């Protein structure tokens, strides 16, 4: 199973997330890998989350490549930066998409570019 | 980075154009002129020539922030202008740039005119301009069409494009467009030029399109400014200068409103032109605090967007922690490719406590309990951040030490330049550092958070805990920051707890936060109003006599109007009405030398020596919290304060103002007027 699938499977199990207690809406991930299309639908109703593999209509649709989805599942992607550079395409409610982005993990010790001249 | 004298700005939120006085743009890699949107320069050249000659401006009308009209003639500026041909360029900024060009022939002969517009786009990120970085990683492209010129830049999936077109037939080339105009005597010729700016996704859709659909049509802009001014309280005063500053500040606050990508169309204040045309946590929170009596509508969207982007996890590049309120949000290429950490960057220690302070202050004015309930979770998270993530060495203070060692900020307080925190002898303290004003904000946030918890959230236990933490912080702070022999508070604590002993304006914020025992206040005030700090115009950021003092030092000696407005608020809190009035008089008088527009900062030179305020070379203008300073100074002069369902008024006017009335101040009381009149016995 891909890391992306594992990520969505975990959400299916989690079910409830207090961070979304004020959020209602539906978000579909369209994940493209060459010709293949993998779709995950998240229905959120005041923090209750239902995750299904479905291509049903959603208020917000997020399009990404399979490669980027894997990186997101590994916690390596800054969502807002990826939207700004066109790697994540959001149609619908961008604020909801950004909230959903918080579900993805983030590596705390992401590699930094060290600047040898800086520091005091 | 350079400040360009004589530039003309045309602004609509984070879209803006800065040109020379004739309307032309001729930029170099390090000058902030051109057409900008989303932190990117979409036009780096925009130069009009008639028969090969550049235009010279005779007059410029920029009384509307989103529209500028240039009256110009061909040729260089000379004593005598033989102006058979003249031109009007009417420029307007909305989602796109439009410019109506009209050329007149007032001569007696038929004219054949070669009218050309030189166009170039370097798609520079605002940070490339600020740090003078010339090289770009992506590739440029140019498409010359029958009816348009497309200039673009592509780097992987990142693509920005500008499309230039005209309403009249034109000859398009890679460097611009030209018109062959035959003009009989007494006739005129017009065309409407347009530059459409696109932030394109790989599928050709503009990534801002959903947001743009929510935007009001550009033709409604003037109405919206009139409505904005009409909705604000009316200022009635005998001071022409104050009237001018008030009007200018109101319009500039309107100009700086912008709709961030993630907020569903609501507007928040951008921090300032040209470097800070985006969302800053600290700047927007302080601007809202300053403007509550006048433009309270800025506050709910500001709190909401900062809440929606509040930190949720730990990230050492963005310096994100759970509960932390962001510092800066950018959409340019350097943010997109994470060469700068601004998507968003969280390296500030004051935005989180100030978020709670604003939420409480807003409720006191508006009575909007729904917002207090809506943002409970976020306010609690911001309060939790203070103790859980900011107390780096478990000593009970907010400390900072950057985790992003490549591009993070050394100083994460409002004075965020590298050398702003120093000992009186000039030494720089080590890290982590704890600056004094941040502790005041934390104290105030706990006190105000306790009120919210008890009154609205139904959690008296949490309220009691916050109050006891605030009391402990008050004692600790007054023991460890107070320099008894000097009679003021240390600017900061060094990493080992040694007080950083320099005298700075930061101590004025402590009065605003209420962390100063009343018996110590007179000594603090004596320093604030003494010759080392007070220039006659305002309180300097850093006192004369400190080793690093420089009247033109960005945070080491200049006078910041915003800083002074909070100091004046603090002075009133402790009963120093006359001193607050002196600051109000100084700052508002300085504004008249800047045509009513207070810059970010001006020189710390003595008022008696220079007689007029000295412009700081790279100061931003307009700047949201400088425009806000005028509003807060009016509040402090009138002494207006929400008191349950009433508006209390307790004026303290400087001698220069005979009468100030602010009419229709909105709040939980409906609308109320506040009057202040000079009493004859005050002289």
- Radius of gyration of chain A, Cα only, in angstroms? 15 Å
Q: Let me know the CATH homologous superfamily of chain A.
A: SCP2 sterol-binding domain
Tell me the count of domains of chain B: 2
| Number of individual domains of chain A | 1
Task: Tell me roughly what share of residues is in helical segments of chain B.
Answer: 25-40%
Can you name the CATH architecture of the largest domain in chain B?
Alpha/alpha barrel
Relative strand content of chain B = 15-25%
At CATH level 3, the topology of the largest domain in chain B is Glycosyltransferase
Number of helical elements of chain B? 18
The backbone outline of chain A, from C-alpha atoms, is globular
CATH class assignment of the largest domain in chain B: Mainly Alpha
Structural class of chain A: alpha+beta
Percent of residues in helices of chain A: 25-40%
The fraction of residues in strands of chain A falls at: 25-35%
Strand order of the largest sheet of chain A: 3-2-1-4-5
Mean pLDDT of chain B: 92
CATH topology name of chain A: Nonspecific Lipid-transfer Protein, Chain A
Most strands sheet of chain A? 5 strands, mixed
């Amino acid at each position: 199973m891909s890391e992306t699938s594992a990520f969505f499977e975990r959400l299916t199990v989690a079910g409830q997330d207090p961070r979304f207690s004020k959020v209602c809406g539906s978000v579909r991930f369209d994940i493209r890998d060459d010709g293949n299309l993998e779709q995950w639908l998240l229905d959120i109703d005041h923090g209750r989350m239902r995750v299904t593999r479905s291509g049903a209509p959603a208020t917000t649709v997020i399009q990404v490549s399979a490669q980027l989805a894997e990186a997101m599942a590994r916690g390596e992607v800054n969502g807002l930066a990826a939207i700004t550079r066109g790697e994540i395409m959001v149609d619908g409610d961008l604020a909801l998409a950004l909230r959903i982005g918080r579900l993805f993990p983030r590596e705390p010790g992401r590699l930094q570019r060290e600047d040898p001249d800086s520091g005091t | 980075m350079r400040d360009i004298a004589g530039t003309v700005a045309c602004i609509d939120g984070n879209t803006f154009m800065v040109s020379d006085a004739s309307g032309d743009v001729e930029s170099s890699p390090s000058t902030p002129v051109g057409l900008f949107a989303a932190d990117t320069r979409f036009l780096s050249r925009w130069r009009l020539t008639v028969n090969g000659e550049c235009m010279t401006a005779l007059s410029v009308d920029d009384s509307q922030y989103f529209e500028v009209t240039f009256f110009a003639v061909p040729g260089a500026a000379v004593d005598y202008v033989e102006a058979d041909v003249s031109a009007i360029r009417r420029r307007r900024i909305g989602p796109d740039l439009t410019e109506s060009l009209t050329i007149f022939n007032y001569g007696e002969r038929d004219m054949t005119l070669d009218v050309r517009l030189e166009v170039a786009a370097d798609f520079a990120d605002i940070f490339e301009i600020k740090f003078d970085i010339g090289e770009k990683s992506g590739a440029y492209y140019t498409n010359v069409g029958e009816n348009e010129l497309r200039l673009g830049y592509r780097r992987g999936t990142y693509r920005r494009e500008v499309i230039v077109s005209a309403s009249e037939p034109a000859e398009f080339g890679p460097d611009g467009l030209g018109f062959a105009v035959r003009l009989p005597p007494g006739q005129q010729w017009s065309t409407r030029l347009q530059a459409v700016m696109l932030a394109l996704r790989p599928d050709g859709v503009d990534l801002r399109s959903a947001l743009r659909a929510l935007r009001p049509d550009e033709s409604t802009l003037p109405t919206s400014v009139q409505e904005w001014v009409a909705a604000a309280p009316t200022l009635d005063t005998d001071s022409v200068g104050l009237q001018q500053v008030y009007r200018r500040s109101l319009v500039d606050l309107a100009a700086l409103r912008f709709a961030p990508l993630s907020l569903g169309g609501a507007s928040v204040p951008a921090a300032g032109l040209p470097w800070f045309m985006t969302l800053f946590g600290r700047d927007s929170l302080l601007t809202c605090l300053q403007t509550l009596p006048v433009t309270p509508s800025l506050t709910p969207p500001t709190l909401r967007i900062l809440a929606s982007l509040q930190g949720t996890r730990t990230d050492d590049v963005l310096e994100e922690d759970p509960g932390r309120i962001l510092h800066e949000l950018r959409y340019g290429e350097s943010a997109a490719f994470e060469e700068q950490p601004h998507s968003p960057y969280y390296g500030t220690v004051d935005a989180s406590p100030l978020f709670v302070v604003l939420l409480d202050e807003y409720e006191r004015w508006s009575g909007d309990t729904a917002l207090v309930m809506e943002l409970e979770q976020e306010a609690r998270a911001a309060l939790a951040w203070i103790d859980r993530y900011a107390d780096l060495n478990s000593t009970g203070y907010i400390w900072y030490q950057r985790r992003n060692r490549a591009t993070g900020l050394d100083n994460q307080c409002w004075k965020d330049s590298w050398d702003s925190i120093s000992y009186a002898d000039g030494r720089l303290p080590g890290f982590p550092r704890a600056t004094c004003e941040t502790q005041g904000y934390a104290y105030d946030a706990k006190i105000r958070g306790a009120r919210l918890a008890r009154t609205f959230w139904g959690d008296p236990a949490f309220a009691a805990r916050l109050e006891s933490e605030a009391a402990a912080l008050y004692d600790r702070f007054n023991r460890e920051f107070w320099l008894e022999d000097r009679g003021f508070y240390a600017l900061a604590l060094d990493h080992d707890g040694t007080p950083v002993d320099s005298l700075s304006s930061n101590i004025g914020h402590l009065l605003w936060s209420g962390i100063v025992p009343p018996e110590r206040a007179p000594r603090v005030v004596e320093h604030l109003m003494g010759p080392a700090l007070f220039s006659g115009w305002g309180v300097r950021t850093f006192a004369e006599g400190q080793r690093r003092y420089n009247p033109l030092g960005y945070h080491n000696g200049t006078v910041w109007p915003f800083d002074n407005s909070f100091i004046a608020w603090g002075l009133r809190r402790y009963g120093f009405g006359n001193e607050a009035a002196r600051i109000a008089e100084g700052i508002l008088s300085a504004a008249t030398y800047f045509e009513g527009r207070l810059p970010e900062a001006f020189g710390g030179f003595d008022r008696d020596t220079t007689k007029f305020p000295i412009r700081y070379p790279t100061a931003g203008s307009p700047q949201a919290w400088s425009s806000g300073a005028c509003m807060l100074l009016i509040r402090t002069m009138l002494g207006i304060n929400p008191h349950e369902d009433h508006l209390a008024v307790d004026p303290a006017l400087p001698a220069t103002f005979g009468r100030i009335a602010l009419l229709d101040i909105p709040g939980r009381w409906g609308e109320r007027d506040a009057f202040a009149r000079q009493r004859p016995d005050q002289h």
